[in-house]
């Protein structure tokens, strides 16, 4: 092998480069695999086991992980036991050697509730509308009633989000015209919501824990119910797909430790799109000016050095700048000029979607400028000289010859900026991101896109769920799932950049290095 290297005159460097690429791909795949297993595995209906310790009461739980006690040979297993309203906690460590028996009863039920989290136990009865279902008849009756409740909840949520909330905002900002009609519509919507709430109530689910404690659970607080030990693999696959879909389409609940991330997905994508609309023209024009228009003297070199140094400034510094200049400076001035009737409640003088997008545009501007300028510098001079020699003006030479050849570089800079902006969290904490904003900043009221509203972001959702929740252990699977979603978004953006760059390079004959 050594003689082969020396005969080619290349040495070990090609092999080292190939090994580095392989190692990078392996690390990326390992990261995605870890996030997928820990995140998407959370939605799989895991079996509920009935554990009987040697010196304690039996309990039902889902095995989470197993660890060895430091300094000892004993191993402990962590079980998710639910029933927080009964036990005050939903986690239990048990020594593996102290377990006398483990069984998998098919009748064990898992209830997903809007309060107190999951309940693990046995189904006793379902009461409602003057009927009482017990035994095996209670389970199909429960599933049928839950399906009805899902329909009622969807209608209630639609009325609240699409009718009540816009009407309330419209009345808050109304000048007197149309108030009577809006109030009448609001009254009708609230009346319908009360009817739906009444139709959802009245049913009681009686369940029992393993140690015999019974709970009378209002059925309208139960979201879903399943028997994991009695489900076939196909049933579990369907339940897993439903859980993933709810994660992508619903909003968060239980202090971000449960529910979905749809508002965070929407907020992240919308913020990145607005940031791209701002940073792309300014970054491209600045790069064109520095490379094609400005005199290449000491001042231009100084500006170029400053731009490259700005790319290394910590993100939190841009957040402080955005808070002081955009939020308090420009936003406060806009409130004094146009929204003085709403003061002291700020409209633009507080964090929002607009200021977050502008702050990240400022953060990513050096990346776009540098990429554009590097692309322009790699266009051969004879391309410019040939266009000018054929009678083209300088503007025609730039727009029809140079810029088409630089499009791959511009696209690379823009996608790198998008990838960085999608993962930034620190500046957003100061200029508009919110822990919980279930209403997306787009609706049917003029101007339809509300730039002054706060929004949710995938990166901040990960941070908040991992460090600020009341039960971090319960939130960790959703943290992994959200992290996987964020990584996939950035990965898709980068793959899109590669394919588009290849297409533009082949079409416009850009330099091969790009």
TrEMBL record:
The keyword Nucleotidyltransferase does not apply. Pfam families: BPD_transp_1. NCBIfam families: 3a0107s02c. Its main location: membrane. This is Phosphate transport system permease protein PstA. GO terms for biological process: phosphate ion transmembrane transport. It comes from the Bacteria. Belongs to the binding-protein-dependent transport system permease family. CysTW subfamily. Residues 265-497 form the ABC transmembrane type-1 domain. It is found in: Cell inner membrane; Cell membrane. One of its GO terms (molecular function) is phosphate transmembrane transporter activity. GO terms for cellular component: plasma membrane. The lineage of its organism: Bacteria, Pseudomonadati, Pseudomonadota, Gammaproteobacteria, Oceanospirillales. The chain crosses the membrane at residues 261-290, 310-331, 351-371, 401-422, 478-500. Keywords: Cell membrane, Membrane, Transmembrane, Transmembrane helix, Transport. It is a multi-pass membrane protein. It comes from Halomonas alimentaria. PROSITE patterns: ABC_TM1 (PS50928). The keyword Flavoprotein does not apply. SUPFAM superfamilies: MetI-like.
